[in-house]
Amino acid sequence: MTRNHEDCIALLEQIRWGGKPKCPYCESTNATPMKNQRRYHCNTCFTSYSVTVGTLFHKTYVDLEKWFLAIPLVLNSPESISVRQLAKEIGVNKNTACYMIARLRKAMIEEPKLLQALVEVEQL
Ligand SMILES: [Zn+2]
């Protein structure tokens, strides 16, 4: 199943927030959606944020679509998936695939619940 960027963001928002934005800095849910981009302005601490802040997806140069494709592949065989195999399966170069595998292995320790939820959604 392929999703576009918007779909991925919407899905992540659903999983992390249950649809209601929550500030990653002060945990306030008093937020105003920003126009023209999928970010929110926090009315409590006056910062802006998107759903990826505080997750493995924050500040990576890889598209969310690619991450979503990689997650089930890497989670199902974290020790045995090769860089070459992942690169081929999701259409990225080897450097990117190598980075993604390392990042996902780290996230499996730090954010197991989020990854698990994403895998379950992928299998629906
Ligand atoms: Zn805030």
In words, what does this structure look like?
The chain is mainly α and 124 residues long. It has two domains: 5-49, no CATH class; 64-122. Helix content is 50%, strand content 6%. The protein has helices at residues 5-17, 64-76, 83-90, 94-110, 112-122; strands spanning 31-33, 40-42, 48-49. It has a three-stranded antiparallel β-sheet with strand order 1-2-3, with no helix packed on it. A hairpin with a 5-residue loop joins β2 (40-42) and β3. The mean pLDDT is 93. Zinc ion binds next to loops. Zinc ion is lined by residues 23, 25-26, 28, 42, 44-45, 47.
Number of strands: 3
Strand content: 5-15%
SS content category: mainly alpha
Q: Main beta sheet, described?
A: 3 strands, antiparallel
Task: Name the ligand types.
Answer: zinc ion
The helix count comes to 5
Mean pLDDT: 93
Percentage of residues assigned to helices: 40-55%
Distance between the termini: 10 Å
Overall spatial form: elongated
Radius of gyration: 15 Å
Residue runs with pLDDT of under 50 for 5 or more positions: none
Strand arrangement across the biggest beta sheet:
1-2-3
Estimate nothing, just give the exact number of structural domains: 2
Written as H for each helix and E for each strand, in order along the chain, the element string is HEEEHHHH
